[in-house]
Amino acid sequence: VEDAEASLAAVAAMAEEMGGWVVSSNTSMMTTPAGQEVARGMITVRVPAERLDEALAQIKSGGGEVDSETVTGEDVTAQYVDLSSRLTNLEAAEEQLRTILDEARRTEDVMSVFNQLVTVRGEIEILRGQLRYYDQAAAFSSITVSLTPKAIEDPIQIAGWSPVRTAENALATLVNLLQGIADFIISALIIVGPLLLVIGLPVWWLRRQGRRA
What we know:
By secondary structure, this protein is an alpha+beta fold. The chain is 62% helix and 15% strand.
C-alpha cells in the first residue's frame, strides 16, 4: 500500500461499520533503500461471517496490491454437540445435588454435597464459556491483514543510475574473484603437491646418504 497507517485505519473503520471490532493492531517503522522512514502495520479484525466476502473485497479494493491470501475454516459441529450433551448432563446433576442438599440434615452431609455442587457449577460455567466461544466463532470471521508500504520495494533510481544494481554487480564481481582465487589454490595443491613429493623425496634421500658418507 502507499500508506500503511492510513490503510490500517481504513480496515479498522470498516470492521466497526460492519458491526465487528478490532482484535489487535500494531505498527512499526522501517527504513527504505532511499533512507526514508515509513510505517508497516498488521491488524486483526472480526466481522460478521455473512459479510466476510464483502470485507475481503473492500480491503483488496483499497488501492493496494495483494501479495498473498489464505482463507481457512474449521468444522466444530462434533465438538459443539459433545459440549452441549455434557452441559445437559451436568445441569441435571446440579438439580439432583440441590435436592439432596435441601434434604440433608447432618453437617458433614451438607458440606459434602455443597462441595460437589461447587465442582459441578464450575464445570458448567467452563462448558458454557466454550459454547459461547463457538457461537461467536461461527457468527464472526477473523481477518488478519499485513500492510507493507510500497516504498520499501522501490530501489533508488537516479538519472538511470541504480546504486542497488551497482552493489549487486560489485558483489557478483567479488564472488567471482574469490572463486577464481580458490580455484587457483586448489589446482596448485593438486598439481604442485605431487610434483614436490616426486622431486623432494629423492633429493631428501640423496642428501641423507651424503651425510652418512
